[in-house]
Amino acid sequence: MQELLLKKISKMNRLLILGVGLLLVSVYFLPIWHISLDAPQYPEGLGMRIWIDKITGSSPYDLQNINLLNHYIGMHEIVSESVPELLFMPYVLGFLIFGAFVTFLHPKVYLVILGILNIIILGILGMYDFWRWEYNYGHNLNPDAPIVVPGMAYQPPLLGCKEMLNITACSFPSWGGIILFVSLGILVFVIWSEKRRIDVTK
Amino acid sequence: MILIGLGYGCKNGAATAALASDAAKRVYVAPGEKDEVYAFLSGGFSGQMSVYGIPSTRLFKIIPVFSVFPENGYGYDEETKNMLRTTHGYVPWDDSHHIEASMTDGKQDGRWLFLNANNTPRLARIDLRSFETKEIIEIPNSAGNHASPFATENTEYLMAATRFSVPIPQASVPIENFSKGDFKGTVSMVKVDPKSGRLSLELQILVPGFDYDLSHCGKGKSHDWCFFTSYNSEQAYKMIEVGASKNDKDYILAFNWVRAKQCLDQGKASNFGGEYYRNYLPENQPAISEKLSGVKMLQPKDCPGVMYYMPTPKSPHGTDVDPTGEYIVGGGKLATVIPVHSFSKLMEVKDKPEHRSGTIMDIPILKYESTLAGEVKKPCLGPLHTEFDGKGYAYTSCFVSSEVVKWELGTWEVEQHLPAYYSVGHLSIVGGSSKDPYGKYLIALNKITKDRYLPVGMELPQSAQLYDISGGKAELLSDFPTVGEPHYSQMIPAKLLMDKAAKIYPLEENKHPYAIKNEKDARVVREGNTVRVYMTQIRSHFKPDTIEVRSGDTVFFHVTNLEQDFDIPHGFAVGGAPEMPNLLIMPGQTRTFKWKAPKPGIYPFYCTDFCSALHQEMQQYIRVLP
Ligand SMILES: [Cu+2]
Question: How confident is the model at residue A177, as a pLDDT?
C-alpha cells in the first residue's frame, strides 16, 4: 500500500492530471446543475441554471418567471444573493485546480488520492447543501401565500424528475457538473493504472 | 385522382363530395401545427388590418391602424392618440384599402407593411416584429388617397396619388370648374428610410384632374417606373357614373420616378404649400406628432420625360406589373378585353412623335397600339385586378361576372374560369405582386356573401375565398368571412416572419418617461390638480393598489407591465371612465390612462385580460375625495 501511495506517477498520467486541472478551469464558465420546469402553459419550458457563483434562468427572463409562479405558493424569491455559498464556491474550485497543478509538479499517487477525496467530500457537501436549499425553498413557505395546499411541499428533486401540482420539475447535472464527474473518473483511472503498473512489474 | 376523375365524368355530386373532402384535408391545420402563410387583409371601411393564417383561414389578430380600437385602447391613450392627428384634427376612423409589403430587390423582406387611408389622405407603416402601427404620415394636396401605397422595387419610395381631384391648393371654386381644369391631382413620393423605415414626403407632382385609381411600380427593367390608372378623363362632375364612362379609353399614367427625383435634385420643383402631420410611435414611448408644412411640387412641363399617358380601355381600375417587369396589365372595369402594355415597347416609342396622339398638361399621350403587347379577348365581365403565379400565368378578378380568370402571359389565352362568391374585387397570390411569387395560394376578396353563411340580419360578413393554384388547374379550397371589407391583401410565407416576431418589450429598454421598472418605485405624485400614478402590474396585483384623489383632479395612470413573459399582457380599466376604454399593456410596456376624477365615491379599477389564476383578484380601488 505504502509503495502505491508514494509511487511517482507515470508521465502519461501526469499529463492526465494536468488535463484535469485545465478541464476544471472550464467549470467557471459552464453551469453545474440544471433544473427544468414544465407546465402546460409553458410549452417552451422554464429552466434554472446553477453556476459556480450564481443562479440564472435558462433564458434571460426564466428566473423572473419562475419566481412569479413561485410567489403563488409563497416560496421565497430565488436570487443569487440569497445563497452565500456561491461567494466561496469559486475558491473551492480554485483549490481543486491548484491541487491538480501541485500534483503535476509533485507527481505522487497519494496526492491523486487526496484529490479524489477532496472532490468526493466537496461533492457530498455540495449536494447536501443543494438539498438543504431545495428543502428550505420548498418547505419554508409564506403562510399568507394565495395558494396553500395542506401538507404540500415544493422541494424539487436532487436528481431526477418530480411532479409538483401541474409542474414537472427535473434536476440534472449540467456541463460543469459532468466535468466534475469526468475529472473524478480520470483521477480514479490514474490510481487504477498506477496500481496495475505495480501489479505487472511484480 | 382516378376516382375523382371518373366521378366527375359521370356523377357531378359524388365528384363534388370527393373534391370537398380532399380540399378539407388541404386546409386542415391540425391542433398545435402552424399555418404556412400569413395573410394580411385590409379592413376597408373598418380602417384596420387583419391577420389570418393560410390555408386554415383562421383569424389571428386585428391590427388597429387608422381607426380607434377600444379593445386595446389604440387611439385613446396618451401614447397612441397622437397617431390619429391630422390637419383636420383628430380623425378616429378611415377607409383602408391597399396593403403593400416592403421589398428588397423586388422580393418580400418581411420588415414592414404599408397601408393607405383613403378618406383623410394618410399612409401607415406597420412593423412586422411587433405587428403594430408605428408611423402615420398625412399626404397634403390630395383628396382621396386611393392609388397608394405602392412601393418601388427596393422600397425606396411609396407612391400615393389622388382619387378625387380637387383645387390644389384648396379653394372654394364653382364645381363646374372641374371641367375647366381648375381641379388637379397629385402624385406623391414618400421616401422610406431603408434602416428605420421612417417616412418622409419628398416630392409631389401636379397632374391633370382625373381620378387616379390604382398603381403598381415596375421591377427589373421597369425599376424606374410606376404605373397609375385613371378614370374620368372626361372630367365629369355630375352623374359621374354616366359622365365618366363615356370615353372609349382612359389612361394608365407611366411615371418615371427616377427622372422625377433627378428633376428635384436639379431644382426644377418649386416650393408649394400644404400642411401635414407625421406621427411616429417610438418603441415604448408616446407617439411624437409633428406638424410639417410645405412640399416640393414638380410640374410635368418642367421635367420632360417624367410622365406618359398610355390609353387603356375603359375606366381602368387595376394596373399590375408581372414579375419580369415587362407586362403592365390594365383592368378596364367596363372593358371587354384585358389590355396588356409592353414596357419594352413603351421605351421604344415614348419619345417618337409619330406614336403620340396629343398631350395633356405637357404629358405626352401615346397611341394605344404603340405600347400594346396583346389583349386577352373576352375574358369575363368587369376585369379589375391581376396577380401572377411566377410560372407564366396571370389571374384576373372579374367583378361583374364574379370569377377569377387564369390566362397565359404571351399567348393571352384564357386557361380557366374560377367562380367567386360573389363580386370579387382584389385578389392576392402569396408574393403575387412581387418579383418572386410563392405562387401556391390565391385568395379572392369578395364584396358580397348572400347565401354563403348563416344569415345574421341585413349586414352579412364580407368574404374571401381560398384557391390552390399550385397544380395545373386552380381549385377552390374554402371560403371564410372577413373583418370589414377585405379590400386588398399581401400574403407572406410564414417562415419569413414567425421567428422574428417580438415576444416582449425588454423592460431594460423601456424609455417611456413615466415608466417604473420596480414595484418599489410605485407612487402617487400630485402636481397641482394633476395626479400622476406611477403604477406597476405583475401577476396578480397592481402597485400602488389603493389610491386617493380629489374630485376634479386629472389623473394619469402610467401603467407599466413588469412581466417579461411571452403572451402575458395585462389590462387596465376604471369603472365608469367616460373617455377611455380598456388598455392592454404588453409585457415590458408602459401606457397611460387619463381620467378626470368624477364625483366623490369609490371607483374600482381592474385587470381586464385574464392573466393568471388570481386574475379576478387583480383589482383595487380609487377613492375620490370631495
Ligand atoms: Cu392581469
Answer: 94
Chain A nearest CA to B569, separation (Å): 14
Whether B504 contacts chain A with CB within 8 A? yes
Contacts of residue B451, Cβ cutoff 8 Å, sequence gap at least 6: none
Angle at B20 between CA B14 and CA B25, to 5 degrees: 135
Mutation to test the B interface, candidates A61, A62, A77, A144, most B Cβ within 10 Å: A61
Alpha-carbon dihedral angle through residues B213, B218, B224, B228, given to the nearest 10 degrees: -10
**A61 touching B (Cβ < 8 Å):** yes
Residue position matching grid coordinates 409538483: A164
Mutate to test the interface with B, among A44, A68, A70, A144 (most CBs of B within 10 A): A68
Query: How far from B545 is each of A23, B2, B591, B621, B623, CA to CA, in Å?
Result: 53, 69, 17, 7, 11
> Please, what is the angle between helix A85-105 and helix A109-139, to 10°?
170
Contacts of B566 in chain A (CB under 8 A): 44
A72 vs B contacts (CB less than 8 Å): 612-614
Q: Given the C-alpha cell 396578480, which residue does it identify?
A: B540
> Which residues 128-167 on chain A approach chain B with CB closer than 8 angstroms?
146-147
Mean pLDDT per 10-residue interval, chain A, length 202 residues: 81 91 95 93 91 93 91 91 88 92 90 91 90 93 90 90 91 95 93 86 71
**What is the distance between the alpha carbons of residues B441 and B425, in angstroms, rounded to a whole number?**
17
pLDDT for the residue B270: 97
ipTM score assigned to the predicted complex: 0.84
Does the global pTM surpass 0.80?
Answer: yes
Q: Across the interface, do A68 and B613 touch by the CB < 8 Å criterion?
A: no
Number of cross-chain residue pairs from A and B with Cβ atoms under 8 Å apart: 22
C-alpha cell recorded at residue B597? 376624477
Chain A partners of B539 at a C-beta cutoff of 8 Å?
Answer: 68, 71
Alpha carbon dihedral B510, B511, B517, B523, in 10-degree steps, equals -140
The whole-angstrom separation of Cα A76 and Cα A140 is 8
C-alpha cell at B430: 402569396
The set of cell numbers assigned to B559 is: 401603467
Cell of B376: 386577352
Establish if A98 touches chain B: CB-CB under 8 angstroms.
no
For ligand 1, the distance from its centroid to the CA atom of residue B153, given in whole angstroms, is: 44
Tell me: the pLDDT tens digits for B2-18?
Answer: 333 333 333 444 445 55
Whether residue B326 is predicted with pLDDT greater than 90 in this model: the reply is: yes
Nearest-angstrom CA–CA distance, B215 and B237? 23
Q: With pLDDT > 70 as the criterion, what percentage of chain B qualifies?
A: 97
Cα B226 from Cα B120, distance rounded (Å): 23
Q: Which residues on chain A are in Cβ contact (under 8 Å) with B613?
A: 72, 146-147
| Torsion, CA A172, CA A175, CA A180, CA A186, rounded to 10 | 120
Chain B residue with CA closest to A62: the answer is B565
The DSSP element (H or E) to which A179 belongs, if any, is helix A175-201
